[in-house]
Amino acid sequence: MSNGRRHDFDAVVIGGGMVGLCTAALLEREERLSGWRVAVVEPSLPRAPDPDSVDLRVSALSRASERILQAAGAWDAIREHACPYTDMVVWDAASSPDARDALRFSASETGEPDLGHIAENLRVQWELLESPEIEGVTLLRAGLESLEFQADAATVSLTDGRRVTCGLVIGADGGQSRTRELCGISRAGWAYGQTAVVAHLRTERPHAHTAWQRFLPDGPIAFLPLRDGRVSLVWTTTPENAAALQASEPDEFGRRVTDASARVLGKVELASGRAGFPLALWHAREYVRPRLALVGDAAHTIHPLAGQGVNLGFLDGASLVEVLADAVEAGEDHAGLRVLRRYARWRRSENALMLGTTDTLNRLFGERSVGIAAARRCGLALVGSQPFARRLFVRRALGLAGDLPGIVSRSGYAS
Ligand SMILES: Cc1cc2nc3c(=O)[nH]c(=O)nc-3n(C[C@H](O)[C@H](O)[C@H](O)COP(=O)(O)OP(=O)(O)OC[C@H]3O[C@@H](n4cnc5c(N)ncnc54)[C@H](O)[C@@H]3O)c2cc1C
User: Fold this and answer.
1) In whole angstroms, what is the distance from residue 148 CA to residue 144 CA?
2) How far apart are alpha carbons 149 and 162 in whole angstroms?
3) What strands, in cross-sheet order, belong to the sheet with 268-284?
4) Residue ranges making up the domain that contains 127
5) Beta partners for 220?
6) Which of 23, 59, 302, 315 maximizes ligand 1 atoms within 8 Å of its Cβ, making it the mutation to test the pocket?
7) Residue 308 — φ and ψ, nearest 5°?
8) CB 26 within 8 A of CB 170
9) What is the C-alpha to C-alpha distance for residues 172 and 319, in angstroms, rounded to an integer?
10) Quick check: CB of 402 below 6 Å from ligand 1?
11) Cα dist. 365→12, 192, 368, 369, 377 in Å?
């Protein structure tokens, strides 16, 4: 049931990042919501990416995200510029990548073509903007200023003075979400006291389409394959070390990364700029209010060690659209709490599980005690040797475990 006659828009998505644009595209493509008018509020839409270079910010996208982005009309174009990875190697600082207690997974053992793709965040945003699904979406190039909720509508005031009314507000405005703040929704969590340093590297040995991750006491160091043969570094470390790394001369930086990598890719050299991201775990205490739903980093921020942040955000968007479409089909008030709480229950529990798991891994691998280090290595060896545990690990990495929205589970990939 469209409320189009009463409001300017049926849904206004605040934030045109990867998750906001994807959610808007999914709303547009959903047949049961045909006739809906959707807007995205975003002050800084991306420029067209340079096809000859790889932007510094990249994400490991899961199979579930691939399915969702396919439905959003953007995947084919994203894949052309992304790098598939077929293998994953995870090992403890006290061990080595070819030891018995290193975890090695290969797509070939699961019958999958790959374990995921490394894609530029900017490219994902851009191809979503270019997708046919987004054509019908109104782009409001401004920031969110304030929100007012009435019984039958919400009014969104923008930084350029415009005001629009809508049936539903979807907050997709990232970790510092103004939507969440304006609604007075608090969040639980903590800063990790860790910073992730990112850069692109040239490596002596080829990356072999493998995602490498070594757990050091201060945090993991990861190397993700890029389509131009370089690798993307994500080195989680103390804020002090991160600042020193970012300020170091390029040669010194290369030497330090080579040492920390245990030379798994041979000698490495800095081949880009560098950036640092302070890390935190945050989980919104509420995902919904009447006429409001939060998705993506606006609802949760997670440690990047498992590469899950935006993958969870895409699942939020797809699940929300499914809940809304089911409600409209059943003639329910889709913007009421009764319906929106279905989305909140669904995604809050799935996200809490992943937030908890990555937090535990980060703590476990940060433990310096000799006993715990030995137990940790036994645990890795056990997971690596048990077919059931291996399968579960790969299903989680592919984003195909848990309670999935139909556009992922009906694709034939999900278990
Ligand atoms: C080092 C690092 C590595 C990572 N690696 C991975 C990975 O491999 N895989 C993975 O899945 N995730 C990864 N992540 C997490 C991922 O980057 C985030 O989860 C993702 O960017 C969140 O997307 P989003 O659209 O929810 O929010 P954002 O990307 O923060 O987008 C929010 C948008 O809202 C807009 N906005 C903000 N305020 C307003 C306002 N007031 N009004 C209107 N618009 C507003 C912003 O301009 C922005 O466009 C990583 C994170 C880090 C830090």
Assistant:
1) 12
2) 16
3) 103-106, 87-92, 210-216, 219-225, 231-237, 187-203, 268-284, 300-301
4) 9-84+114-189+281-366+404-409
5) 215
6) 59
7) -115, -15
8) no
9) 14
10) no
11) 42, 14, 8, 10, 10
Q: Would residue 47 count as lying in a domain?
A: yes
Long-range CB pairs of 94-98 (<8 Å, 24+ gap) are 94/373, 94/377, 95/377, 95/380, 96/262, 97/212, 97/214, 97/262, 97/264
In a domain, 398, yes or no: no
Q: 35: phi > 0 → left, psi -120 to 50 → alpha, else beta; which?
A: left
CA distance 320 to 329: 14
Helix H or strand E encompassing 123:
helix 121-130
Q: Name the one residue in this structure whose structure tokens are 């009764």.
A: 338
User: Does some domain include residue 89?
Assistant: no
- 172 in ligand 1 pocket by Cβ < 6 Å? yes
- Residue with the smallest CA separation from ligand 1 atom 27 is 174
Atom 51 of ligand 1: nearest residue by CA position = 304
Q: Is 162 helix (H, G, I), strand (E, B) or coil?
A: coil
How many other CB atoms sit within 10 Å of the CB of residue 9?
24
Which one-letter amino acid corresponds to residue 171? G
Q: List CB contacts of 46: < 8 A, sequence separation 6 or more.
A: 122, 125, 126, 129
Which domain CATH number covers 43? 3.50.50.60
Residue type, 200: H
Residue nearest (by alpha carbon) to ligand 1 atom 15: 309
d(CA 334, CA 331): 8
Residue 184 covered by a domain? yes
Token pair of 217, please? 């006491």
Tally of domains within the chain: 1
> Who's near 19: CB < 8 A, 6+ residues apart?
172, 295, 296, 297, 310, 313, 314, 316, 317
pLDDT values of the chain reduced to their tens digit, one per residue, 415 residues? 344 468 999 999 999 999 999 999 999 999 999 999 999 999 999 989 988 889 999 999 999 999 999 999 999 999 999 999 999 999 988 888 998 888 898 988 888 899 999 999 999 999 999 999 999 999 999 999 999 999 999 999 999 999 999 999 999 999 999 999 999 999 999 999 999 999 999 999 999 999 999 999 999 999 999 999 999 999 999 999 999 999 999 999 999 999 999 999 999 999 999 999 999 999 999 999 999 999 999 999 999 998 899 999 999 999 999 999 999 999 999 999 999 999 999 999 999 999 998 888 888 877 777 777 777 777 776 667 777 777 777 888 888 889 999 999 987 433 3
